[in-house]
């Protein structure tokens, strides 16, 4: 089915500045099952440009699956997903081309251990986007500098702290100039003293206008950085709102119970 278009999108010359920007990511009625069990049920999500959406919820509530569906790492059973107005769950879509527009960082830093930091970062831009080595390395060095890793380009991952490795993983995701960044509990495997440096990177990216969806157990951080918070419960987006609404005045008993337990 075609993406719904705003009046402005249908008529580029129309002078109607009031139309809200088209969402970068939109999910509608997404259903995902594994074997017989329903893992996502009727999930809807809209992510506006330059905003941060935080997914919160207990382990097993479906946060990772939602992110993996958004990146087409999982096929959905029902519903539809749009990226910049294009329905990416349309079977005719080139899934690899879609994935190139989305950066993903997972919980465990999955850098290639036999490659230097620079080689890790430049692999996708060179192989997938066809950038020259010089172009890819220049961009990689700029990003490393920006994330406070300027001196690390020629190190191997095992020479870096967990926080540094995770920052390199973020640089690697940014190296393809993604439209959208998906971050799945990127601080969960870190020693507590290393969490802050990674969260600072996310703060900086937000300040730069990067559109992000992040699953997190860091409630204080979600409250601070998110424009929208979604509480997942057993595969359902049970409640959503601004951080003020969701943390300050949760409407659902299950949300209140979750927040009491975790905060
Ligand atoms: P969260 O990230 O919120 O902890 P997940 O999305 O990882 O939740 O998991 C949601 C549910 O889906 C869990 O019950 C989990 O066991 C199940 N699940 C996730 N991935 C798979 C898979 N590949 N095969 C079968 N079940 C899965
Ligand atoms: Mg998860």
Automatic annotation (TrEMBL):
InterPro entries: AAA+_ATPase, ABC_ATPase_HisP-typ, ABC_transporter-like_ATP-bd, ABC_transporter-like_CS, MetN_ABC_transporter-like, P-loop_NTPase
SMART domains in UniProt: AAA
Pfam families: ABC_tran
Record's keyword annotation contains Cell membrane: yes
Sample GO molecular function, one term: ATP binding
Biased composition, class Low complexity, residue ranges: 6-17
Location (main, coarse): membrane
Region described as Disordered: 1-23
UniProt cross-references to CDD domains, sorted A to Z: ABC_HisP_GlnQ (cd03262)
UniProt topology in membrane: Peripheral membrane protein
Domain ABC transporter: 25-259
Keywords: Amino-acid transport, ATP-binding, Cell membrane, Membrane, Nucleotide-binding, Transport
Cellular localization per UniProt: Cell membrane
Family designation: Belongs to the ABC transporter superfamily.
UniProt-recorded name of the protein: Polar amino acid transport system ATP-binding protein
Species the sequence originates in: Streptomyces rishiriensis
């Amino acid at each position: 089915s075609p993406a719904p278009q705003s009046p402005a999108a249908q008529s580029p010359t129309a002078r109607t500045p009031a139309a809200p920007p088209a969402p970068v990511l939109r999910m509608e009625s997404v259903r995902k099952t594994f074997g017989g069990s329903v893992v996502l049920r009727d999930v809807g999500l809209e992510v506006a440009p330059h905003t941060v959406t935080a997914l919160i919820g207990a382990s097993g509530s479906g946060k990772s699956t939602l992110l993996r569906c958004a990146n087409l790492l999982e096929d959905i059973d029902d519903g539809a997903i749009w990226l910049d107005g294009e329905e990416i769950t349309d079977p005719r879509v080139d899934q690899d081309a879609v994935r190139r527009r989305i950066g993903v960082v997972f919980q465990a830093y999955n850098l290639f251990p036999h490659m230097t930091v620079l080689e890790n970062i430049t692999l996708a831009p060179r192989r997938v986007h066809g950038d020259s080595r010089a172009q890819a390395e220049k961009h990689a060095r700029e990003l490393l500098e920006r994330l406070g890793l300027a001196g690390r380009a020629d190190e191997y991952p095992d020479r870096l702290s967990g926080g540094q490795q995770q920052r390199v993983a973020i640089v690697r995701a940014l190296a393809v100039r993604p439209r959208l960044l998906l971050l799945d509990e990127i601080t969960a495997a870190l020693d507590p003293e290393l969490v802050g440096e990674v969260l600072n990177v996310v703060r900086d990216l937000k300040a730069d206008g990067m559109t992000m969806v992040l699953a997190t157990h860091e409630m204080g951080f979600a409250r601070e950085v998110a424009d929208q918070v979604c509480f997942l419960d057993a595969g359902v987006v049970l409640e959503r709102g601004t951080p003020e609404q969701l943390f300050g005045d949760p409407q659902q008993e299950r949300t209140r119970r979750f927040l009491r337990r975790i905060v």
